Amino acid sequence: MPPTAPRSIKPVVVRDLTKLDILRHGCGGWTRLGYRQRRPMPPPTDKQRACREPMRFARKKYFEENLDNIAIWNANHPVDYFCEAVKRWLAGHSPASSCLYPLDGASEITVTAAAAYTAFGIMLTFTPSDWYALWGIAILRAVEPIETPDVWSLRYIYPQNRQVEATWIDADKKSGTYHYRLCACEITGRIGPYCADVFATVP
To answer: Which domains does the chain have, with CATH numbers?
Structure first.
């Protein structure tokens, strides 16, 4: 009886496997990444995003710091730069550059904003009233009018250090009306007053 031909095995296409993934995960990284391709992770919840955004923002700023500032932070603070950014945001403050004397008072920088629907998502247009100490604009989002700003509604912290008009597109295209309020984040750790509620509708 002739031997049966082996069954064809459908290869797993791993598109985002990089040398860094192999170095980080070892040979098992192939398996994990292949599994992630077959079983995509669900989108983050609002609370997960509210914790990840300060960390993402701090990661970009951390690698822009000079080595002296990084050494001072690591030597004087028991919590790393990224976790501290999350803790400060959840306490109602901005991520701060310095670990020694971050400020917790209110910033005087205000933000004017407008929202409009586009084919790519809801486009926010905003302008800070000043640039001194400014290093980001925090964007809150909710499906109901935001009467009291809630730190768990954080959608994004837009890097900004100039007094110019900027735009950001919220690419979530699910039908519905979305409300936003924005505030300035200072490098010192202070946040400014939130702008009035602005909204737009995705048909």
So the answer is: 46-90 (no CATH), 111-202 (2.60.40.10)
